[in-house]
Design goal:
Blueprint lengths: L3 H40 L2 H35 L1 H30 L6 H20 L12 E2 L8 E2 L7
Antiparallel strand pairs: 1-2
Helix pairs in contact: 1-2, 1-4, 2-3, 3-4
Length: 168
């Protein structure tokens, strides 16, 4: 039990298991919010807007918890697996950049309901939905045998994305 590697691995396991809960919930809530905003826009009933407003707040809390658990996870990747981070940083960094961009849309969704038109607020919800699903899909090679959009050239020391849309 005095082995520090054991404790590092245990801490990373706790962080990644706890973090793993939030992306799935974010993806499901994003779809739910888009459905509710669609119904509110088409039917014009205020109940769907109220329900969407409630779930947008839950979505915001969930997104914040995902960030709070995701940032230490990225640091642990860098400190515990530095060679992996150097090799796959171009791929993992893409999802981090996407999450940063879509945090802007979350801000518009949470704080912009009174400042944006109903249609603009709906389009913001759609952008957040597409972004959350696209961010998860960007990590697809970790579970899919189709790696046609990734290349590890022998003359480079890192991986990079090529032909991103080739597998669609």
């Amino acid at each position: 039990m005095a082995d520090p590697v054991f404790w590092h691995r245990l801490q990373f396991a706790f962080t990644i298991v706890y973090h793993y809960l939030f992306p799935q919930l974010t993806m499901g809530l994003a779809l739910l919010i888009v459905v509710m905003k669609t119904l509110a826009l088409r039917i014009g009933a205020g109940e769907w807007d109220d329900a969407a407003r409630f779930w947008i707040r839950i979505f915001g809390i969930n997104f914040a918890m995902g960030v709070v658990t995701g940032i230490p996870m990225e640091f642990q990747f860098g400190t515990n697996w530095a060679r992996f981070s150097a090799f796959a940083g171009g791929i993992i960094g893409q999802t981090l950049a996407m999450e940063g961009i879509f945090a802007f849309f979350l801000g518009l969704l949470v704080f912009g309901e009174r400042r944006l038109t109903r249609r603009s607020h709906y389009l913001t919800a759609v952008a957040l939905f597409v972004g959350s699903w696209l961010s998860a899909y960007s990590l697809r090679p970790s579970w899919s045998p189709d790696t046609s959009r990734w290349r590890w050239p022998p003359w480079r020391d890192d991986s990079r994305v090529v032909q991103w849309l080739a597998s669609y």
